Amino acid sequence: MERTTKTPVSLSSLSPGDDCTVTGLQGVRRAARQRLLEMGIMQGVRVRFVRRAPLGDPIEIHLRGYRLMIRDTEACGISVTLDHPA
């Protein structure tokens, strides 16, 4: 099944190497949402899914020139759209 670039998906559903753009932070607890915003995860930010830990949690993403590890439960609440391959 091919994923389209316009359909929002969860950040946690991506595969390593996928590039995406954040479209929203639905389903994230208030405290976690504030922390994610402070770390630069907000609407319109481009993100690359780098890797998933061996046991599946946490995941590593690259954004704004740095790498960040976030819990899979937080990544589930981050809506993204896939970008076209370069």
Characterise this structure.
The protein has helices spanning 30-38, 72-76, and strands at 9-10, 19-24, 46-52, 59-63, 66-70, 79-82. It is of the alpha+beta class. It has a single domain (9-82), classed as Roll (SH3 type barrels). It is globular. The model has no long low-confidence stretch (mean pLDDT 89).
Summarize the structure.
The chain has 86 residues and is an alpha+beta fold.
Lay out the secondary structure.
Elements: E1 9-10, E2 19-24, H1 30-38, E3 46-52, E4 59-63, E5 66-70, H2 72-76, E6 79-82
Antiparallel strand pairs: 1-6, 2-3, 2-6, 3-4, 4-5
Major sheet details: 6 strands, antiparallel
User: SSE string, helix = H, strand = E?
Assistant: EEHEEEHE
What's the number of domains?
1
* Average pLDDT metric: 89
Beta-strand portion reads 25-35%
Oligomer: single chain
Helix-residue proportion: 10-25%
The side-by-side strand order for the widest beta sheet comes to: 1-6-2-3-4-5
How many helices? 2
Rg over CA atoms: 12 Å
Distance between the termini: 21 Å
What name goes with the CATH superfamily? Answer: Ferrous iron transport protein A (FeoA)
User: What's the level 1 CATH class?
Assistant: Mainly Beta
Question: Looking at CATH, which topology would you report?
Answer: SH3 type barrels
Instruction: Tell me how many strands there are.
Output: 6
pLDDT < 50 runs, ≥5 residues: none
Name the shape in a single word. Answer: globular
Known CATH architecture: Roll
What class would the helix/strand composition place it in? alpha+beta
